[in-house]
Amino acid sequence: MSRSPQLGSARGHPSHEESPQPGSERVPLASEKGNPSHEKSYLNPGLPKPAPASDGLDAPYWQAAAEERLVMQHCRACGGWQWGPEWICHHCHSDDLVFDEVPRGGRIYSYERVWHPVHPALAEQGPYIVVLVEFPHHDGARMVGNLLGDPRQPVEIGASVQAAFEHHKHEDPAYTLVQWKLVGG
């Protein structure tokens, strides 16, 4: 049976923050280095570029992000919400899923302050903060992204965050990343 997506819930737990090595210093973010071609990029260039899956399942998410909208899958059979995109509902196993818009705010469920590079392009960048953002009014579905701002800022579980859209319109193919920023921060 062939399906096409229409216009996704990571599980996690509170993480423990790693301490910096003695004498370690914060390295500026790509946007702080004065390189005009990367002024709006949170992370250093050289990372693999995200793109919709070849089966097209998550294409509505990427399109919505480019339009500065946040969407998740919503099951028309049971009303459940989920992230990441799947062909069947996590709750009732129906295949009657659509992408519906959700508010651009959530709360921090968990986070990790990353000190060690996970990719060669990040060898000179660190720390940075990865957050797991929960949407409590949408079945607790969760999305992952970077927390913008000072990478040494204190992070509170339950703190309110707002989506920030980082456009890469001059890349081939163009894409938009969903990052997060503290509300009132």
What does this structure look like?
The chain has 185 residues and is mainly beta. Residues 1-39 have low confidence and may be disordered. The protein starts with 58 loop residues before the first helix and ends with a strand. It is 4% helix and 29% strand. The strands form 2 sheets. The chain has a 5-stranded antiparallel sheet with strand order 6-5-4-7-8. Strands 2-1-3 form a 3-stranded antiparallel sheet. 28% of the residues are buried. A hairpin with a 5-residue loop joins strand 1 (71-75) and strand 2. The chain is globular and about 45 Å long. The chain contains 1 helix and 8 strands; from the N terminus they run αββββββββ.
Ends: how far apart?
48 Å
Give the total of beta strands: 8
**Biggest sheet strand line-up:** 6-5-4-7-8
Q: Oligomer, anyone? A: single chain
Spell the H/E element sequence.
HEEEEEEEE
Mean pLDDT: 81
Please tag this protein with its features.
mainly beta, 29% strand, 185 residues, single chain, five-stranded antiparallel β-sheet
Please write out the topology.
Elements lengths: L58 H8 L4 E5 L5 E2 L14 E5 L3 E10 L13 E8 L5 E7 L12 E9 L6 E8 L3
Antiparallel strand pairs: 1-2, 1-3, 4-5, 4-7, 5-6, 7-8
